[in-house]
Specification:
Low-confidence stretches: 7-16
Radius of gyration: 18 Å
Distance between the termini: 52 Å
Number of strands: 10
Largest sheet: 8 strands, mixed
Mean pLDDT: 92
Strand content: 15-25%
Helix content: 25-40%
Shape: globular
Bound molecules: S-adenosylmethionine
C-alpha cells in the first residue's frame, strides 16, 4: 500500500461496497475521525495525521467521543421529546456505533433521515449500509452549497420541507474557514421555518493553550482544517434562533445522561447547542 497514491474501497476494505477512488496522498476528515473513534476505515496517511493530534493533546479521541455522545443525546431528545420526525445530517461521517437513523428510529421507526457527505468512502459505506432502507438515504453534496441539499430530489422524497425538521451540523463547521463557515451557517438557517431545529457542535477555544495547540496540529498536521472558535464566534452560528435549554455550552453539559462522561479530560474543548427557529 505504501507506493500507491489511490485505491478502491474493495482493495483496502471489506470488499462489499462499490469501489470509489480513495486519495491516499492526503488524510481525509472522515477517515481520521473514524480512526480516533476506534473504527476500521482508515489508512496510514490518516493515522499519521492523527498522530500529530495525539502529540498535541493525547486525549484527542475523547473529543470525538464527547461529540458523538452529545449528538446521540440531541437526536434522542429531538425525536422523543420534541417530536421531530425528519432529520438532515450534514457531514454525517462514516457509519459508526449509534448512527443517527438508528438512534432516531429506535424511538420511532417512521423517522426519515437524509445523510449528506462529500467523502467517497462515506458515500460508499453509507449507501451499502442503507441499501434496503426506505426511510433513510445518503446523498453526495457539498455542505458549502446547502441549497443544493434542500432541492435534491432524494431529499424531497423523504423530507417534507413544509413540516418541522431538524438539521444536524455536528463537527463540520470547524472544518470550514471563517468566511465560509458563517456564510454556510446563515444559508442553513435560511432553510429553516418556524418549528425547525438545528444542532451545531464545534471545537471550542475557551482560552486555554490546548485549543491553540490542537488547532495548529489540525492545520499543520496534514488535514489543513480544524478551527477552534471562541464562545462569541460560536454564538454567531445561531443568530436569529432561539437556543433550547441549556443553551450553548460545553458538549458534555448538554442534557447529560448516565452515559455522558463526567470527567472528560477535554470537556472544555468542545461546544454544542441546539436551537429552534422561532
Ligand atoms: C468530523 S466528521 C463528523 C461526522 C459526524 N457529523 C459527527 O459529528 O460525528 C466531518 C464529516 O464532514 C464531512 N465533510 C467535510 N467537509 C464537507 C463538505 N464540504 N461537504 C460535505 N461533507 C463534508 C467529512 O467527509 C466528514 O465525514
Amino acid at each position: 500500500m505504501e507506493d500507491r497514491t489511490s485505491l478502491s474501497a474493495e482493495q483496502g476494505l471489506d470488499g462489499e461496497v462499490p469501489a470509489p477512488e480513495i486519495d491516499l496522498t492526503r488524510p481525509s476528515i472522515a477517515r481520521l475521525y473514524d480512526y480516533v473513534l476506534g473504527g476500521k476505515q482508515h489508512f496510514e496517511v490518516d493515522r499519521r495525521a492523527a498522530a500529530a493530534l495525539y502529540e498535541a493533546v493525547p486525549e484527542t479521541s475523547q473529543l470525538a467521543k464527547d461529540n458523538r455522545n452529545q449528538l446521540r443525546r440531541a437526536v434522542q431528545w429531538l425525536v422523543r421529546d420534541v417530536g421531530i420526525r425528519q432529520i438532515v445530517d450534514l457531514g454525517s461521517g462514516l457509519p459508526t456505533v449509534g448512527n443517527v437513523h438508528e438512534l432516531a428510529q429506535a424511538v420511532d421507526p417512521r423517522v426519515h433521515v437524509v445523510y449528506v457527505d462529500n467523502d467517497p468512502l462515506v458515500l460508499a459505506h453509507g449507501r451499502a449500509l442503507l441499501s434496503d432502507e426506505t426511510t433513510t438515504t445518503m446523498i453526495a453534496a457539498d455542505v458549502r452549497e446547502p441549497e443544493t441539499i434542500f432541492t435534491d430530489p432524494r431529499t424531497a422524497e423523504l423530507i417534507d420541507l413544509d413540516r418541522p425538521f431538524a438539521v444536524i451540523a455536528a463537527s463540520i463547521l470547524h472544518h470550514l474557514d471563517d468566511d465560509v463557515a458563517y456564510d454556510v451557517a446563515g444559508r442553513i438557517r435560511a432553510q429553516l421555518h418556524p418549528g425547525c431545529y438545528v444542532l451545531i457542535s464545534n471545537f471550542l477555544d475557551d482560552d486555554e493553550p490546548r485549543a491553540k495547540e490542537l488547532e495548529r496540529a489540525f492545520l499543520d498536521g496534514g488535514l489543513g482544517t480544524g478551527r477552534f472558535r471562541t464562545w462569541d464566534e460560536q454564538r454567531r452560528f445561531f443568530e436569529g434562533l432561539e437556543m433550547v435549554e441549556p443553551g450553548l455550552g460545553y458538549a458534555n453539559d448538554w442534557r447529560p445522561d448516565h452515559l455522558t462522561p463526567s470527567d472528560s479530560p477535554v470537556h472544555t474543548l468542545y461546544a454544542a447547542g441546539v436551537a429552534r427557529k422561532p
